[in-house]
Amino acid sequence: MVKADSEFRLESGEREFQSLISGFYKRLTDLKTSNKKVLLGLGGWVDSETDKFSKLVSNPTSRSKFITHSIDFLKQNNFDGLDLDWEYPKCWQVFHIFN
Predict the structure, then answer these.
(1) CA 49: distance to chain centroid?
(2) Which of 20, 45, 66, 99 has its Cβ near the most Cβ atoms within 10 Å?
(3) pTM of the model as a whole
(4) What are phi and psi of 66, to 5 degrees?
């Protein structure tokens, strides 16, 4: 689990989930060709409902840890990059749908 303070830890049941996801990531990145890149997407419309990205980037130490952990994770899982879809400060669709 990655928290806003960028601490990484596995909780009960997450080891099995991580194993499943790692297998999926490998199958996905195995489809790469010289003409294709595979990025890992993080964030998006639903993830923009909270202030977790704001908290993450507001602290230089948290930012640095997030960047370091992200790069390590991307390399470990053979991704070509990260698509961080941060709807800042809050996705306008969420405001109109839920308010």
Answers:
(1) 15
(2) 66
(3) 0.63
(4) -60, -45
Q: Is 2 helix (H, G, I), strand (E, B) or coil?
A: strand
Q: How far is CA 94 from CA 41, 52, 87, 98, in A?
A: 19, 15, 10, 6
Residues spanned by the domain of 79: 14-98
| Residue at 45 is within a domain | yes
Residue type, 34: S
3: pLDDT strictly greater than 60:
no
> Which single residue is written with the structure tokens 């998006």?
44
Residue 67 lies in a domain: yes
Cα 6 from chain centroid (whole Å) = 11
Average pLDDT, the chain: 75
Q: Residue 46 falls within a domain, yes or no?
A: yes
For residues 90 and 49, is the Cβ–Cβ distance under 8 A?
Answer: yes
Residue type for 6, please?
A: S
Q: What is the mean pLDDT of residues 45-63?
A: 81
Mean pLDDT on 43-64: 82
Count Cβ atoms below 10 Å from residue 91 Cβ, excluding itself: 19
Paired with 82 in beta bridges are 40
